[in-house]
Amino acid sequence: MAAIEKSAQSKNPFMRIIPLLFAAGLALFVGHAIAGEQIPLADFIKSPSYRIAKLSPLGDYIGVIAEREQNDVLVILDTNTLKTVHVQQAPPNYSVGTFHWIGPKRLMLATNVKLGHRLSPRNSGHWLAVNVDGSALQDLNNIDYTNNQFKDTAATKQANVIYGPLTLQDAVPEDETSIIVSTFEYPEKGAKAILVKLNTFTGRYELLADAPSENCQFAMNKLHQPSYALCSERPNKDDDEVFRTQFYKRVENEKWLPVGQNLTSKNFTRLIAESGDGKISATNNDGVRPKNFGFINISTGVYEPAYQDKVADVSEIIIASDGVTVLGVVTAAATPVITMLDSGNADATLYESIARTFPKQIVNFDGATIDGKKILLSVRSEKNMGDLYVYERDTKQARLLLRKRDWLKESEMAEVKSLKITSRDGIDLYGYLTLPNEKKFTKPFPLIVNPHGGPIGPRDEWGFNLNAQLLASRGYAVLQVNFRGSGGYGGEFQKLGQMQWGGKIQDDIIDATRWVTAQGDVDADRICIFGASFGGYSALMAPIREPGMFKCAVGYVGIYDMELMATTGSASMARNGSKFIEKNLGKDKAGLRAISPAHNADKIKIPVFLAAGARDMRAPPIHTERMQAALKKAGNPAEEVIIQADEMHGFHDEKNALDFYTKILAFLEKHIGKK
Questions:
Q1: Nearest partner of 239 among 579, 486, 498, 584, judged by Cα
Q2: Which residues make beta-bridge pairs with 280?
Q3: Is the peptide bond before 444 cis (omega within 30 degrees of 0)?
Q4: What confidence tens digit (pLDDT) does each residue in 28-74 have?
Q5: What is the pLDDT of residues 85-117, one digit of tens each?
């Protein structure tokens, strides 16, 4: 059981810290796995039992999103029996993306389009409302699925029907007829942001208030009325880092009154909620330091920090059963640390008690009933993808409901160590090393270096990693490092990755590899590099930068020609895409060629495996084809090339994924397997 200590990071006597692991070091202590037969490869590849779970307002039902035939559906379960009440599908070729309970027996759900395992789905912007039994299905914002456009006709305008995007601001659980949403009216010129009360059975709304500006976040009070708004805009449309922000209070005549002066800075503040005591909680990102947590001063409109970690972002917020009070925050340079901010709250005491019963795991309050007597708990760790419990205050018992992957036993999962290393130029880097079971495999282990995608923004997280656990189950250690440019460590750390895709980022990967090999767990003569997306790029670029370190390379849905990236793929087509590419890569053709694996194939002297999705829009398969041609021309043809039909940015079909990993494992065994 983890100890509870006073936080050394704050003088606030009400702030306490729950270390998930022993304070003696960053390395996780995990017992040996139970020896047994090899876990079938398919067990790692098949989809989890559920993805998102939420408890209904009275606790009678649980809604979960689960995959069926490659698209996600919403499944309603009876909380007591776990029997299926209803399965709600999205329209053809769409998935259910997320959902909210808007009453004891009614939900609203959003649809999206899947783009592959390595890329977040594309939101359609479409919302529907439905009862738990599938009845009373109502379109909330009218989209035409034949051309993925919002319906825009005079009839819909005259009928007070939303025909554009909407954002849920508040539900009224006692009255599932209506919800409060923000949306837009479209007069003859431009768009006007509004707050409306939307009837979920008819799809028609009544106006509550005009928004003070177009880009506003709202704080809702106990009466389900907007009380405050925080609005921001970019004063320079070409500069996406500077914001002009104004805080507003809604006064008695239902007008918005500015509070304080508008501020122009690099700070971006995101509201969380207005708590029962009138405090407005928020997070703030100043573009330099890690994201912090604090409150908006309602008298001045100024954000006041309450908790700032020196290294890592506030990545998660622990919310009380009332759904608005912040109990604590989570930061994770490597291993997560939970800091309790309101230890006088009864729910904080309850949280700490529950957390102690799940040592070395993260516990979240994922929602509660209106009366707070039932709380939905999620529990996860680096060896457990996620378990779902319902806690009942009256009995003080937590009942297991669902496991995301109950076919994978925690006792058979690999050990994971959290790492902190220093780069050659003095930058602190954090990461993870997954180690095979020593009862099944012998040290030193062959090593797979597994760079993450991005590179600017994404990061490797603490938690259950399917790819790492799969490889470890076959005897390979797996290294993941959050190189400069990774998210989660503040804007300044991210900016260190700009113009360094083929340079210092690769040095960070190489430095981490060199450090790990010096610790004695892995074999320096048996190292392969295997990555996807930007990680696929690194899999080919790192061996160019450090010849002799790697014995083989696997590039999966990767980008290999930086000149080509500037003109093809979703990055170049996105808003400000060309600006992003110029800021991160430059536009000098000679410079782009110098950091392109496809233009430096003659420097790659090791076996290569390439794989891409034929329909990938993020990393179009032409990159893989050019890399294949360049390797062949250099006299080192790729040993295996897969351009998988019907796949996008990461193989989604289980049969295709199983075939891919089967071939990958054979490739790895050939080059860095048994001595």
A1: 579
A2: 274, 296
A3: yes
A4: 222 333 345 899 999 999 999 999 999 999 999 999 999 987 789 99
A5: 999 999 888 899 999 999 999 999 999 887 666
Query: Residue 74 pairs with which residues in a beta bridge?
Result: 65, 88
Tell me, yes or no, whether 422 lies in a domain: yes
Q: What is the C-alpha to C-alpha distance for residues 315 and 338, in angstroms, rounded to an integer?
A: 10
- By C-alpha distance, which of 37, 158, 18, 168 is closest to 102? 168
Over residues 391-412, mean pLDDT: 95
Q: Is residue 181 part of a domain?
A: no
Q: How many domains does the chain have?
A: 1
- Spatial CA neighbour of 267 closest among 303, 316, 296, 300: 303
- Mean pLDDT over 454-481 rounds to 97
pTM of the model: 0.90
DSSP-derived letter for residue 494 is: H
Confidence of residue 17 (pLDDT cuts 50, 70, 90): very low
Helix (H) or strand (E) holding 157: helix 154-158
Q: What is the pLDDT of residue 498?
A: 95
Percent of the chain with pLDDT over 70: 89
Q: What percentage of the chain exceeds 90 in pLDDT? A: 70
* Residue 171 belongs to a domain: no
Sheet holding 256-265, edge to edge: 216-220, 226-233, 243-250, 256-265
Alpha-carbon 133 to chain mean position: 31
Backbone angles phi, psi at 31, to 5 degrees: -70, 165
Please count the other Cβ atoms lying within 10 Å of the Cβ belonging to residue 397. 10
What is the radius of gyration, based on Cα positions, of the chain?
A: 26
DSSP states of 502-519: TTHHHHHHHHHHHHHHTT
Tokens 């025909």 locate to 163
Mean pLDDT of 4-18: 37
Sequence-distant (≥ 6) Cβ neighbours of residue 419 within 8 angstroms: 26, 334, 430, 431, 432, 433, 481, 512, 515, 516
Residues 521 and 396: their CA atoms lie apart, in Å, by 44
Instruction: Round to whole Å and give the CA distance between 445 and 668.
Output: 13
- Distance (Å, whole) CA 469 – CA 498: 31
Query: Cα 94–142–270 angle (5° rounding)?
Result: 80
Report whether pLDDT(360) > 50. Answer: yes
CA dist 66 and 53 (Å) reads 9
* Tokens 């009933």 sit on residue: 369
d(Cα 26, Cα 18) in Å, to the nearest integer? 14
The pLDDT of residue 57: 95
Distance CA 545, CA 100 (A): 49
Do you know the residue count of the chain?
A: 675
Does the bond joining 455 to the residue before it have cis omega, within 30 degrees of 0?
yes
- Range from 6-10, 300-304, 592-596 carrying the lowest mean pLDDT: 6-10
The residue range of the domain holding 606 is 414-672
Neighbours of 438 (CB within 10 A): 14
Q: Is 105 a member of any domain? A: no
The domain that holds 597 is classified in CATH as: 3.40.50.1820
Contacts of 643 (CB under 8 A, 6+ apart): 611, 612, 613, 614, 621, 624, 625
Give the number of other CB atoms < 10 A from CB of residue 376.
23
Question: At 553, which amino acid appears?
Answer: A
- pLDDT number for residue 574: 52
Residue 14 has pLDDT above 50, yes or no: no
Ramachandran assignment for 93, one of left (phi > 0), alpha (psi -120 to 50 degrees), beta (any other): left
CA atoms within 13 A on the CB side of 552: 25
Of 38, 43, 36, residue with least CA distance to 658? 43
Give the orientation angle of helix 504-517 with respect to helix 534-545, to 10 degrees: 70
Q: Write the DSSP symbol of residue 598.
A: G
Q: Write the single-letter amino acid at 327.
A: L
